[in-house]
Amino acid sequence: MSELASLLVSVLGVFALALFVRLLVRDRDRVAFASVLVLIGVIVSVAGLSFDLDLTTDLILMVFLPAIIFGGTTTLDVQRLWRNASLIAVLTIVGLPLAVLILGGIGTVAFGFPLLVALVFATIILPTDPAAVISIFDELDVSERLAVTIEGESLLNDGVAVVIFSTLLAAFESSGSVTALATPGGLVAIAGDIAVVGGGGLALGVVVGYLAHAVMRRLEDEMSILLLTVLVAYGSFLLAEHYLGMSGILAVVGAGLLMGAHEETHHKMSTSEYHVQELWTTAGFLVTTVLYVLIGAEVRVSAFFQHAGLVASAAVLVVVVRAATIYPLVSGTNSTLSRPVPLYCQHVMVWGGLHTVVPVALVLSLPDGFPFSEELQVMVFGVAIISIVVQGLLMPEVLSRVGLGESSSA
Questions:
Q1: Contact of 259 with 232, CB cutoff 8 Å
Q2: CATH 1.20.1530.20 fits domain 42-47+54-401
Q3: What is the pLDDT of residues 342-365, one digit of tens each?
């Protein structure tokens, strides 16, 4: 059998499993489809089976993630996102770096890692994922404002995390420590990198998305619109990431927001534009289906049990650190909001921080020779599995307990 035929068999095998899962949970509204997919992948790994499809950093960041992000951003309510922009900015620009410092400091004691390794782990594991959030919230009748806030935070903090991750790796390759980064000049340099690399990527995407939207308004052919959106989604990522040294993830976010919902709402979309948007939603579903099964199947069960203590500690600390940043930052930002975020919504924001796709991509990109790389990989995959399976499956119960979700019109 040729390599291409073997690859096709693997992809069809994933879809066959996904179909089985879909039929299994279709009448069970309180069971998250994404969580069961990851669990099925773990079962495949335990059974000693494998798919002839390697999960790599390039596959996740360059193939899967642009489709997920672009499809998700084109359906966001931009007006509602803008009304919550100050909170999302605080959670991304202040919350994520603060959480990295807290978990990094605790990690030197809890995991026994050197400070640099602990900070790298914190940077890898803390960004929440749009793929996980979108896939679960789409199946639950979550308050739209809450969904937009969590999804907006997830879309932006991935780009910021990649910038911090690159800075820490540069420190490792140059001196093997973070001493230079702990100085005022080092902190200013990190802030400058976030502003230039992250902000530049977002701005580039906004410009590309705005221009593409203007072109799209002059097109009536559905296939032409579809080709244009593919060029924008993947072209903005490649232009920012590989040619201009900016954040490709944030470029796709900016392009999707401006191209998908520029004229205030989606009610002005033409029939062709609506059909293309439906195609992107379908593409995002197919991509996340493959991705979640592969993440589960990549788990090495023996290594997981060997480092069970580290995995369990990391899973608990990630939630604790997220709570330690969400509650004070949201409460502090509430004074500036016309509609403060109530405490019960903050509980959902803490529990809704799922850490799967981007953390897996980042840990797979660690250079050869990086200290404790095996432990880091096992911990990241372990937290990813626990995050999507445990938090995902319990999400409907959490929503019901706080008065949100399908049982409430809040």
A1: yes
A2: yes
A3: 888 888 889 888 888 889 999 999
